[in-house]
Amino acid sequence: MARNTKESILMASLEMFSRNGYAGTNIRELSASLGMVKSGVYKHFASKEDIWNALLDKMVAYYDQRFGSPEHLPPVPDSLEEFLAMTMQMVDFTVHDEKIIMIRKVLMIEQFRDERAKELATKHFLTGLTQMFTHVFAGMIEKELLKSDDPEMLAFAYTAPISSLIHLCDREPEKTDEALKQVEAFSRYFIKVHEGEAP
Q1: Are residues 83 and 176 in the same domain?
Q2: Last residue in a domain, options 11, 32, 55
Q3: Do 104 and 20 share a domain, yes or no?
């Protein structure tokens, strides 16, 4: 039961942090949203900062398991169509999973206040993506699916526009379908430009 209460507190916190930011979220409103009193929340977490850090830990694990990370690298595709399918699956997940959308908003809001949020924003929006796709492209070059090139530069060139379109979905959710079509069109263009000569 205590575990379920902790989970409920963390999920309610995620919703409030993504909507109001850390400073705009208070324990009284958080506890009221759960039908609890403040002391009930403090039975599980010592402070708002304690909730914040536990939430980041939980969300990092959730993201890494479902999307991937430099510590949880995706497999190298065996074909260009498989690569396209992998890309679309990853993007579809990140623009439709409610928890991921909220944690991305939290990181965007809090990256200028909190050092850990800044580091996670840099990792999830830039360096982590580049590292993951450097691994993917190095493997695809080795399999001759792509022309020989610098895999890190390919990864940077590939992920930056896609990341921008994901942020567009957060700002303007009504454009999500259009953004997904743009991601697919860009991915197909990228493949066409960099396609290797595998048999």
Answers
A1: yes
A2: 55
A3: no
Q: What is the pLDDT of residues 20-75, one digit of tens each?
A: 998 998 899 999 999 998 888 999 999 999 999 999 999 888 887 777 777 778 89
Q: What does pTM read for this prediction?
A: 0.84
CATH number of domain containing 141? 1.10.357
Burial of residue 120 (CB within 10 Å: 0-12, 13-18, 19+) is buried
Q: What is the pLDDT of residues 67-97, one digit of tens each?
A: 777 777 889 999 999 999 999 999 999 999 9
Tokens of 99: 């928890």
Residue 3 has what pLDDT?
59
Write the CATH number for 40.
1.10.10.60
